[in-house]
Amino acid sequence: MSETVARVQPASFEPAEQQVDEGIGSVELSVVLPCLNEAETVATCVQKAMSFFLLHRVSGEVIVADNGSTDGSQALAAAAGARVVSVLQRGYGSALMGGILAARGQYVIMGDADDSYDLADLGPFLDRLRVGAELVMGNRFRGGISRGAMPALHRYLGNPVLSFVGRLFFRSKIGDFHCGLRGFNRDSVLQLGLQATGMEFASEIVVKATLAGQRIEEVPTTLSPDGRSRPPHLRSWRDGWRHLRFLLLFSPRWLFFYPGLVMLCVGLIVGAAIIPGPLAVGGVRLDVDTLAAASALMTIGLQAILFAIFTSVYASNEGFLPPSHAVSRLRRIWTLERGLAVGAVLGLAGIAGGVASLIFWYGFTFGRLPYDTVLRLVLPSTTALVMSSQIIFGTFFLSILDVRRSHRGLGAGAAEEKEEILASMRASQGRGNAESRQTVGSQAGVYQTDVPDAHARRGGHPTVEYPPGSVRDSRRGRHRSR
Fold first, then answer.
1. Which of 13, 88, 331, 407 is 20 to 30 A from 463 (CA-CA)?
2. What is the pTM of this model?
């Protein structure tokens, strides 16, 4: 048995896919609470959610996604009526992904297990979900933040700034990107390919739902001081940076294109103004030194714009960002041949400028030159050569990104297809032998929700380890020793 399976506690988890198959249609709402050493408050949170189910006659369940608690949180949650799911990989996002995968409900509301949100008042979230909203965000700033519930750094700097950046980058209308209480349609959120394992998971849901065009609504919610006696898991600067980093990485326009465009335009304008001669601005005289800075701005700006295009194309090819209509139009116009032609013209201009500078130097019998005069010719020429190289190589690279391996090329897919057929035959044979011996399920293993690293993750969701030798195991090509 593999190490992952061997570490499972049998009483803590049932197969996630089996839960979904048995539960869909009978459970309307799943409340998912990530938990790491929340013994002081987890039972209270579970009881509040249960009281909401009873009071409003909702068919629901509470799932506590435990992330390795050592204070007995699991037993307390189970005693209060929750179903405890053990998630091996540490992290806020990892725990939530494990809990969402295990949920049986059509809708999921995620909250915190520290009793800072009122889980007995989930009606506004469920009402919006029932009428078609795919993601319902809580807004603490509209609902009310009790004194002492949120540090001043988070209330007046962190949350407002990061929420503003999210609205600016992704044209979202959400006022509170990082509210821990939110609800969503389970099927809709599983289509987003969520992957973040840390606190930035909160931003990832909003960003990807916005990019996917899902229906997002917002309701006021309250935030109260948590009931813990220990410090929170949140680390202000570290987790704030992780949120900002995520927002930047998923917005090539703001990370690369807009800064690059500004630098390129400033460099062109300043350079064009200085090439004819020194430029006086007030009491400041701008000369060839400024021209050198303008050349650097143009070079860096063009490279940043190319990075924006490369990132957009790669991200859309891989499926974690939707295709950009602007980039698609550009690619229809900017073909490989046209890119090479533009690069060649710019390169020839740079070479011509280099030849002119040599002739100018020859006029001084290759002696000392007036640098302020010759640099007005040399700097634009070298800049043109550098930008020519960037355009030519960048156009080739963009064309390489368009070369995508076909699913069934000549010879390439034959071996894969043969392997699939053989695996299917082995699976069918295994089922027949098991039925004849009436030993179906005799090799039952222990199931465990596990969120592996980025290289092993499929589609960004937690995976389920199946028993060795099972049909699903053989179909996935996971061959283990029995």
1. 407
2. 0.71
